[in-house]
Amino acid sequence: MSIPEDVREQLLRALEGGAAHPEVTTALEGVPADARGRRAPGLPHTLWQLLEHLRIAQRDILDFGQTPDHESPEFPKGYWPESDAPPSDVAWEDSLEVFRGDLEALQEIVADPRIDLTAPIPHLDGPTWFREVMLIVSHNAYHVGQFVQTRRALGCWEG
Question: CB of 76 within 8 A of CB of 60?
Answer without folding.
Answer: no
